[in-house]
Amino acid sequence: MAEDIEERKRIVEIKEYKQYFNEGKKSEVRAVKDVSFSIYEGETFGLVGESGSGKSTTGRAIIKLGDITGGQILYKGQDINSIKRRKDLLKFRKSMQMIFQDPYASLNPRLTVKEIIGGALKVHGMETNSAERTKKVHELLESVGLNKQFANRYPKEFSGGQCQRVGIARALAVEPDFIIADEAISALDVSIQAQVINLLKELKEKNNLTYLFIAHDLSMVKYISDRIGVMNRGRILEVSNADELYIAPLHPYTESLLSAIPTPDPEAERHRVRTEYDPGYHHYDNHNGVGLHEIAPEHFIYCHEDEVPLYRKKRQRLLKKAKQYA
Amino acid sequence: MEETTILEVKDLAVSFQTFEGVVQAVRGVDFSLKKGETLAIVGESGSGKSVSTKAINQLLPKKNTLIERGEILFEGKDLLKLSEKEIQKIRGNDIAMIFQDPMTSLNPTMQVGKQIAEPIIAHKGVSKGEAKQKALELMDLVGIQHPERTYKSYPHQFSGGMRQRVMIAIALACEPKILIADEPTTALDVTIQAQILDLMNNLKKDLDTSIIFITHDLGVVAQMADRVAVMYAGKIVEIGTADEIFYNPMHPYTWGLLASMPTLDVEQTSLYTIPGSPPNLLHPPEGDAFAARNEYALGIDFYEDPELFKVSETHFAKTWLLHPDAPEVIPPAEVIRRKEKFRYLNSEKRMSKTVGGEAYGRRY
Ligand SMILES: Nc1ncnc2c1ncn2[C@@H]1O[C@H](COP(=O)(O)OP(=O)(O)OP(=O)(O)O)[C@@H](O)[C@H]1O
Ligand SMILES: Nc1ncnc2c1ncn2[C@@H]1O[C@H](COP(=O)(O)OP(=O)(O)OP(=O)(O)O)[C@@H](O)[C@H]1O
Ligand SMILES: [Mg+2]
Ligand SMILES: [Mg+2]
Q1: What percentage of chain B's residues is helix, strand, coil (to nearest 5)?
Q2: Residue B81: helix, strand or coil by DSSP?
Q3: ipTM of the complex model
Q4: 3-state secondary structure of A42
Q5: What local confidence, expressed as pLDDT, does residue B1 receive?
Q6: DSSP B168-202
Q7: Which spans in B70-127 are helix H?
Q8: Could you give the C-alpha distances from A50 to A53, A220, A282, B292, in angstroms and in order?
Q9: Of A206, A214, A210, A207, residue with least CA distance to A178
Q10: Which of A17, A21, A101 to mutate to test the pocket of ligand 1 (most atoms within 8 A of CB)?
């Protein structure tokens, strides 16, 4: 497994990325302190974690919305900071699409759905003929489970979930290689979530797409992701392949996150015990030797190097326990 | 425990005038809300959950909304008949709402702290200083860090989840009798979600607040709800106690919802989905709106809309499958598993029969 991954191409590489807002002012926010991870071509990388921990900010940085404070982001081997010419930018924007967290705020309220999706096609010189374009818009709407008659509606005439699907259709329209889905399905009902997830999976296989999937629904993240990164307060605390993360969550924050997932079972809910997390846990006064350390192949924890043996033991113990129950 | 009804929605029907014609978004919805209870509304996206609840506070766009028929009774008044001035006294004070889309419901040009303090000044007649103090407390309560510093922030400087918490603080500001929460936690991580849910449950316990909770997350429903209503195409298709809906569902749409969820423990290659797409509410189909997508549909479903059949004193479902002459059908495996649990729970007599927070023996 580990060797396979070594050979796979990295589509996105994030190195020591930092993002501060209002730098130097009293209101300075260190939204992202130090984030490094890679996304391999053809995989789905899930990003979960605390609200306000910098997930959307990281997503926005990858898609080049605004300047980053520090570090480097490579897309297909190229530093995105060096993409400046209009033609290159356009190519970059076609190759990478984002589905935003707030569907109403990310769609122009004055345009109809046909204009929104058609506009995206037009900008990228796809389907230049107007009749073709309409046909494509209708196809896209149907592919996300929307009635093609909705093409003439304005965003505010949709329910939250319908609006989110318009955003997904717009992202798919330009046939990107890489899609960042920021809470793309949380506004949808479970049946349509399942429909969109199946669609995203199918498209991934068919078009060899890569996804960065930012979400709060940990059961959906587990289902769709190959690997998962867990964020808290501007840092990645744990990166692991998806299955292992749920069997052997090592960082106490990950444990608390998993223990808080509500299950669709009222009786179980009445008896659930949550594990609390003390953020002091990853406060290190001295940062020497602190960073993302590899506990096992492809399983990383943000910790001090002295803690590595402890985490290794914990992993062994949890894997053994999981085997017993299997 | 005494069960007083605080809100009653009767035969509510709402349409919208649009470019393509009249959209019949809500087509006859009945439900009641008791004091201190949490009613969850789940269901298809676009089925009318938000519209039904926005009607309560008269929050639908005046321009193209048609209230076709119905009544919404609160403290002896029909809220649909109140003037804008009268409803303003109730809105945000007696009945507060947390919206699905925080960015569009917050004022982008006003400091978040002020947005929380404003309803307190408006409804409670306290001084500016007191309102600010209360707003800071609320910010802390909903888990916004460093309230003193962030009081002066604008919405765009907040993450999605933080904006959502501002909305929650605004809604809680006046200690409402009814809290309508439209997907209040979808933008939040599970640990903060857990805090917010605890907060809402405390409110319910301390102040006997009634809650209408709209969400797609059936896990959250299981954790919060005393009763659950399931909506499809503008109607309630099933309503019952949380245990009845989760362990003894009767409507094929509810079956589909429960079967669509990924589970943490079982490997799945693809998720179950309900086939087809929802009906066009410009021209709702004849018969049962769910028939075309329902693998358990009977012939009659295609020309006659089923009535609500009674399953128990608290449980009703709108499906012909409950008619005495209907054939026996086998629900999806997931539902059979749940029904077994229902029998087990009943035999153990571990279920309490009354509706209402305390009686359910919850943790809070
Ligand atoms: N334009 C901005 N100005 C100031 N602060 C900002 C700005 N944008 C984001 N922030 C801050 O950066 C932090 C990270 O925000 P971000 O939106 O990335 O969080 P997130 O992990 O996506 O959270 P959520 O799960 O709630 O969406 C937050 O503290 C937020 O307040
Ligand atoms: N202002 C409006 N103009 C026209 N149609 C509208 C308007 N508001 C809502 N609708 C339509 O009414 C129907 C019900 O919408 P509603 O927002 O209540 O759905 P919902 O059940 O809350 O869905 P979701 O789970 O996606 O939020 C949808 O078909 C929607 O497109
Ligand atoms: Mg976000
Ligand atoms: Mg809604």
Answers
A1: 40, 20, 40
A2: helix
A3: 0.82
A4: coil
A5: 47
A6: HHHHHTT--SEEEEESTTTTS-HHHHHHHHHHHHH
A7: 84-90, 102-105, 112-124
A8: 5, 16, 14, 41
A9: A210
A10: A21
pLDDT of residue B351: 47
Sign of CA dihedral A170, A173, A179, A183: positive
What is the C-alpha separation between B210 and B233, in angstroms, rounded? Answer: 25
CB contact under 8 Å between B264 and A261, yes or no, is: yes
Return the domain boundaries, chain A. Answer: 7-248
Report, at the CATH architecture level, how domain A7-248 is classified: 3-Layer(aba) Sandwich (3.40)
- Tens digit of each residue's pLDDT, chain B (364 residues): 457 999 999 999 999 998 889 999 999 999 999 999 999 999 988 899 999 999 999 999 999 999 999 999 999 899 999 999 999 999 989 999 998 776 678 899 999 999 999 989 988 889 999 999 999 999 998 888 889 989 999 998 888 778 888 998 999 898 899 999 998 887 778 888 888 888 888 888 888 999 999 998 999 999 999 999 999 999 999 999 999 999 999 999 999 999 988 766 656 677 888 887 788 899 999 999 999 999 999 999 999 999 999 999 999 999 999 999 999 999 998 899 999 988 888 876 544 443 333 333 332 2
SS3 B13: strand
Total residue count of chain B as it appears in this document: 364
Which ligand is located closest to the Cα atom of residue A55?
Answer: 1
- List the single best residue of B191, B294, B364 to mutate versus A (max A Cβ within 10 A): B191
CA of A152 to the centre of ligand 3 (A): 30
Q: In whole angstroms, what is the distance from residue A211 CA to residue A42 CA?
A: 8
CB atoms within 10 A of CB B295: 11
Q: Which residues of chain A have pLDDT under 70?
A: 1-6, 326
Cβ atoms of B99 and B51 within 8 Å: the answer is no
- Nearest neighbour of A152 by CB, restricted to B20, B186, B242: B20
pTM of the model: 0.85
DSSP B91: B
Q: Is B47 in the pocket of ligand 2 (CB under 6 A)?
A: yes
Q: How far is A222 from chain B (nearest CA, A)?
A: 8
User: Going by CA atoms, what residue is nearest to atom 16 of ligand 2?
Assistant: B48
Helix H or strand E encompassing A19: strand A10-21
B158 Cβ closer than 6 Å to some ligand 1 atom: yes
